[in-house]
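Holo prediction. Input below; ligand is FE2/S2 (inorganic) cluster.
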Amino acid sequence: MNRREFFKFSWGAVGIAALCSAVGISLAAVVRFLMPSVFYEPPQTFKIGEPGDFPFGPPTFLVDEKIFVFRDRDKGFAAASAVCTHLGCTVAHFSSDQKFHCPCHGSVFAADGSVQHGPAPRALDWFEVTQARDGQLRVDKDKVVPPTYRLMV
Ligand code: FES
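Structure of the complex:
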């Protein structure tokens, strides 16, 4: 192989490699384009357990669902969101003052979820609680109810 043939062969090899790279990158882009960029949320309706699983008095905090479940002797069951309406931090319920406190920026919510101290722009949500056929309590986060809503069991 003389010098001229060597360069001819080299440029041909470089061209084929560049073409293969371009086709590969294009195919990868097409495959990525065809795959949906979707984040699946957990179900908004879920069972939380038997009525007897929840004590009277202070609310039960369900970490995964981010809700407080209240059980009053005379009023029944209620579920409040534990997600602060400011930037989404998880609020804590203090039995000492019966209020919800956000640790992030200091918002305070009254026992009914209304804002007592900002920067939260609106009250905490309350969700519908129903009883499923198997007797378990079911919370539907898609159904916001007034804070006075209670399920009597
Ligand atoms: S996230 Fe609760 S006060 Fe900012």
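Strands lie at 45-49, 60-62, 67-72, 76-81, 92-94, 99-101, 108-109, 115-117, 126-131, 137-145. That is the main takeaway for now.
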